[in-house]
Amino acid sequence: MKKKIIEYDDKKFIKHFIVILFTILFSGILYYFMLPPINPSSFAFWIYLVLIIGFYTLIAACSNLKIENNILITKTPRQNDKFKYIWYGFIVIFLAISFVNIINSPIFSAKSYYNRIFVNETGVFENDVPLVDTSKLPLLDKDSSSKLGDRVMGQMTDLVSQFTVSDLYTQINYNDEITRVTPLEYANVIKYFTNHKSGVPGYIKVNSVTGKTELVRLDQGMKYMPSAILNENLYRKLRFSYLTEIFGEASFEIDNEGNPYWIVPTLKYTGVGLKKEVSGVIILDPKTGSSKKYNVGEIPSWVDHVYPSDLIIEELDDWGTYKNGFINSIFGQKGVVNTTDGYNYTVMNDDVYLYTGITSVASDESNIGFILCNLRTKETFFYSVSGAEEYSAMESAKGQVQQMNYDSTFPLLINLNNKPTYLLSLKDKAGLVKMYALVDVADYQKVVVTDSSEGIEKAIKNYLGNSVIGTNEKTADIIINKINEVTIDGNTYYYRIKPYKKYSGEKIYGSFSESKISEWGKYNKAEFENVTRNKINMTDKQGVYYEIFVRSFADSDGDGVGDFNGVTAKLDYLKDLGIEGIWLMPVNQSSSYHGYDIDDYYLLNGDYGTEED
């Protein structure tokens, strides 16, 4: 009898040993692929633990099964009681986590959510944001940069079949140049095994101002990449080096010497998964795999992206929502604001800043101000400037050329003559930038679009008219030999005569009442003195008037541009509508799309037709 008991105990021990061995094996395989942090504040850790206990329970239960009379039964029914206690324990843990998270939720801790990010509300836009410098405007967005990168990659016949271009395109300040960088990646698993010994050969660098794009080849390939597998996978390398750290999303950057690095923020939570916060960054060399963790405040200055953009937006929404408590955020909603849907980046003082608008919780089409946040230091400013919400500005810009069916980029905020102004690019369906649009933040009805071929400086000049751009005004001493004057309708006009090479005779470059000089037209002094004006008594011309933008109204010859003959063909139609008069937008020769910047008052825009038309 004693011998039987010993044999039974030996079998029981072996059975338990096998169950534990399989559980350990399962745990190792699961950890290798799941890569959870060994950190109880992470949801991933608890999911991993539940899966392990669930596997153990399943294997242990299966080991106690036997078949009797073709019926599957449990050998030791009491064993089920042990499993119950295990799951009871998990229920207790779940309830404890839920209790801790409820206590730390906005219901009871609204003030702590409001304080997740400190926002300086005393900033002055014209003092904090430098006047626009057209030589440093990042006109290329991520989508345009991606197209340029793909084009360069397509020219590299030795690489294009083995590697692809990552879609990261991190915007950084590289040696005072606004640049987007992104690494190459292995094209697929097979290409990884073919090339992993030498690694990924380089990265793409795109100048966001000039569009200059180049593939930077490295003397040593990058081995630790997101597209690598097994132990050379970036996140597996990080996890095995930092078992307890919770990682944010990695960004790709280069230092001042052009060496590539992965920048990975480390995170911490309150409770389990609540109030995510950046505790530092890990900088990993993708060529060697060496890495170092830096706490916040110790991070090298060349790193631009420490705080993830999505986390900043999340914290700003909490700041705007819980300022006056949780109950107010649900019911009264006094002072409750949120960020607008979307954000962009700008570069100032050698750092990258996130820009986003702040709008009321009612989500109307206007902003009450906007935010600038330094993504390296988290220094954040709110500027109280009421104006157009970004998407309203985008629609306003597209409306100027609606017949072209262009798409608009998300606005870039610039300081133009000490006024916040939206700069947008209008693209065709192929993604090519066709026009630049400038929109006044305070008045989104003020929109000027300019053909991109004329350049951004011309676009700004068109927007400002005769204004001078900020403090970049240039002055010079000039000598005027002679000023003439003429009186028209009781007003005195002054002008000077200057030879003009393009035309025979002379062209008057300036005529002005009082002291302001503006361009008048092409004629000599005698012609000028004979100028008369037709007087119309507007009191006799009251009625419904219709303003026509000839370019987009009606096209008579199918060339894609409206013309005078198109307007003539629609006169009966306008009359049937009850229109008693028409008012044409500028039709003179002009270099701008809308025609308000007149080049010659004596010539018509040739696209619209002739004087006979």
Question: How would you describe this structure to a colleague?
Answer:
There is one protein chain. With 613 residues, the chain is an alpha+beta fold. The protein has 16 helices and 32 strands. The strands form nine sheets. Strands 3, 14, 15, 16, 18 and 19 form a six-stranded mixed sheet that branches. Strand 7 and strand 8 form a beta hairpin. Helix 1 runs antiparallel to helix 2 and helix 2 runs antiparallel to helix 3. The N and C termini lie far apart (120 Å).
In summary, what is this structure?
Helix 1 (2-34) packs antiparallel against helix 2 and helix 2 (43-63) packs antiparallel against helix 3 (79-103).
Please name the defining characteristics of this protein.
32 strands, six-stranded mixed sheet, elongated, alpha+beta, single chain, 613 residues, disordered N terminus, 16 helices
